[in-house]
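User: Need the bound-state model for 3-methyl-2-oxobutanoic acid:
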Amino acid sequence: MQEFRDKKKRGERITALTAYDYPTARLLDESGIDMILVGDSLGMVVLGYDDTTQVTLAEMLHHTRAVARGVKRALLIGDLPIHTYDTPAQAVASARALIEAGAQAVKLEGGVSHIPQIEAIVAEGIPLMGHIGMLPQSVREEGGYKVKGRTQSEAEALVRDGKAVEKAGAFAVVLEIVSPETARQITNALEIPTIGIGSGEHCDGQILVTHDLIGLFPWFTPKFVSPEARVADEIRRAVQVFIGRTRSSKD
Ligand code: KIV
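Assistant: Bound-state model below.
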């Protein structure tokens, strides 16, 4: 984990993407990505749920095992789904299960509110990545995916969250949909790297949901993503070629 702090000191950007299955994990790993997250975004882009609030630990374990088989080099991080870290003891048990499934580190959502859980997991020797800003597991209470850190008081609260997560022992922290200026302030205030998603250019690294990057979930693309490929269009094209070829064949 020190390697990521050193990268921050040297000003080297950290790259991270999500994977939920063996072939994607293997392709990302072979391409040289630094971190692979089995995110609970699994629920939306793979399992067809409306949001991440229905994802279970059993589902995360199943997909973490598949991803682990494809990763040789990158740091593999497993996401703790909602209500699997409500208490420190539950957090430790859930984190251990993800590690047994093949993750090398875990991630949970929350700052100051979740310090006892973070400390308990780190005390077990399990590396932990924090996640502050917009917290998708709270999307129903929040009423949508809204930018965080636009006001002075929100910015100050987020800097406090970042510092608390660092002090509790996290090796990195995700900043999700945080205003770029606040993301810059948090990044400057911390020694651990910040990994941004929809939070501007000032973070120490960037993470995306792979399906968004490669255009594999065409029904919704977050505003901050510029897809680099149109894989869904390629699938549709190949399927239509196959349908046409099969229907026109005489044998
Ligand atoms: O679940 C996920 O994919 C995430 C990333 C968006 C950071 O938490």
